[in-house]
Task: inverse folding
């Protein structure tokens, strides 16, 4: 029987926040986050976290919620608020070690139902391979990364050793943005998330495609959160640029849309027609159930959202968990 697998579920790590509190750069990072989101969003988010704190930290509360959602297995990743890409090398190493060990401990309480991902400090490529190895040694399946680090895109050649190591080990890379560089333009009405997250997904994936990262490392196992953002439904424009302009295709060996079938995407797109289009362009075997558990921008009924797309039985089964079961080696 196929497991129902949710690949987009988060855990909150209070010890990580206690570690970074009061350190140089912390207040500046908080102020930047506040400017980008705006005061109304911060207020609502604070209330939301308090209400969902148990599901974010307590394994028993998590399992009860999973049972209510009829989810058998979760791939648990740290809340993206724990990236702390502003941290210096010494602090960044402490962050990834503490985060990796905390996620592993959380998942070890129910190993048959919980698999975990750790963190790597993208702002310090010199530490990234060691951080990935630390996560794997802790029993995690890979790491979660954002769409960029300050001054460093995912196309940066300095990150090539990370991609090579991830390819070599078969580690999962969960691409989940945090924050948006459009800054105060999105500081009202929660545009920082509703517009910012899909924008960041599209930009990050475009860097991986157009820079040739996916050509140099074809075995990478990348899962893009939020259905890959705007990119999959607007990939035709990227294809047109690649065909038409020499600069667009200078470092990208194949048509951009062809790379969608080398990536994985979660199903969290909030619209059954968009989900059907994602399945069409990427393939049913490249879309995985995702809920953003337990945040308010997630799907409280991920299976219901999947059913609403009215996929055929084979596609439904693949998205519900058949593909993810193989990726997570649940057999």
Result:
């Amino acid at each position: 029987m196929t497991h129902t697998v949710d690949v987009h579920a988060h855990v909150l790590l209070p010890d990580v926040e206690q570690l970074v509190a009061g350190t140089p750069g912390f207040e500046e990072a908080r102020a930047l986050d506040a400017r980008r989101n705006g005061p109304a969003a911060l207020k609502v988010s604070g209330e939301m976290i308090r209400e969902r704190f148990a599901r974010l930290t307590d394994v028993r509360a998590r399992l009860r919620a999973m049972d209510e959602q009829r989810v058998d297995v979760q791939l648990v990743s740290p809340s993206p608020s724990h990236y702390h890409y502003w941290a210096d090398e010494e602090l960044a190493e402490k962050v990834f070690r503490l985060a990796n060990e905390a996620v592993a401990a959380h998942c070890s309480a129910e190993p048959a139902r919980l698999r975990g991902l750790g963190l790597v400090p993208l702002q310090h490529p010199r530490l990234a391979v060691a951080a990935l190895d630390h996560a794997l040694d802790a029993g995690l399946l890979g790491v979660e990364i954002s769409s960029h680090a300050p001054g460093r895109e995912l196309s940066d050649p300095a990150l090539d050793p990370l991609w090579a190591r991830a390819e070599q080990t078969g580690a999962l890379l969960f691409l989940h943005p945090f924050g948006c560089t459009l800054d105060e333009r999105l500081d009202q009405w929660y545009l920082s998330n509703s517009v910012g997250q899909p924008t960041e997904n599209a930009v990050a994936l475009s860097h991986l495609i157009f820079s040739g990262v996916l050509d140099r490392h074809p075995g990478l196992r990348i899962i893009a959160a939020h259905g890959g953002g705007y990119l999959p439904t607007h990939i035709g424009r990227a294809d047109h640029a690649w065909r038409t302009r020499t600069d667009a295709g200078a470092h990208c060996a194949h048509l951009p849309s062809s790379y969608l079938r080398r990536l994985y995407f979660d199903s969290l797109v909030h619209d059954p027609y968009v989900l059907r289009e994602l399945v069409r362009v990427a393939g049913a075997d490249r879309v995985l159930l995702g809920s953003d558990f337990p945040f308010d921008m997630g799907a409280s009924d991920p299976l219901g959202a999947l059913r609403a797309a009215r996929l055929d039985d084979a596609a439904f089964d693949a998205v519900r968990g058949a593909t993810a079961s193989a990726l997570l080696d649940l057999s």
In short: Residues 223 and 264 are 4 Å apart (CA to CA). The mean pLDDT is 97. The first strand starts at residue 5 and ends at 11.
